[in-house]
Amino acid sequence: MLKEFKEFVMRGNVLDLAVGVIIGGAFGKIVGSLVNDVIMPAIGLLMGGVNFSELAIAEVIKYGAFIQAIVDFLIVAFVIFLVVKSANSMKKAPAPADPTTKECPHCISTISIKATRCPNCTSELKA
Ligand SMILES: [Zn+2]
Predict the structure, then answer these.
(1) Cα(103) to centroid(ligand 1), Å
(2) Distance between first and last Cα of the chain
(3) For the whole model, what pTM was predicted?
(4) CB contact set of 125 (below 8 Å; sequence gap of 6+)
(5) Comparison of pLDDT for 67 and 44, the residue scoring more
């Protein structure tokens, strides 16, 4: 069951899905920050009429929070990149497994690597 779970997790599409969810969530923060910290206050100012006698625009439009959201997104994206990179290298590592079969030179059938006599054509095989 543990092996099945590992195969399930290591399958590319599951990892891609997880990355998509995390990146999507992080990107959602950027959009949320853009709307809440920049666009909505700007609309509010436009609707209420900008008062030029006050420098309120600098305090209301929190573009700093928006920049912070972008930086957060880049950090999350970079961490995800590292996770995917290490997962990919883990996926490649167990690929060259020791062969358990070989080909009989006489009848070209696949037989056990330990066989000294072919079970199909009964030819003796060099070890
Ligand atoms: Zn054979």
Answers:
(1) 8
(2) 37
(3) 0.40
(4) 104, 105, 115, 116, 117, 118
(5) 67
Interval between CA 98 and ligand 1 midpoint (Å): 21
pLDDT greater at residue 65 or residue 111: 111
The Cα–Cα gap between 79 and 71 comes to 12
CA 48 – CA 60 distance, rounded (Å)? 13
Q: What is the pLDDT of residue 104?
A: 92
Distance 105 CA to ligand 1 centre (A): 7
Contact 38, 61 (CB under 8 A): yes
Q: How far apart are CA 116 and CA 109, in angstroms?
A: 14
pLDDT beyond 80 at 48 = no
Cβ distance 31 to 56 under 8 Å? no
Which pLDDT score is estimated for 95? 60
Segment (H or E) for 22: helix 12-33
Task: Compute the distance from residue 127 Cα to the ligand 1 centre, in Å.
Answer: 14
pLDDT band at 117 (very low <50, low <70, confident <90, very high): very high
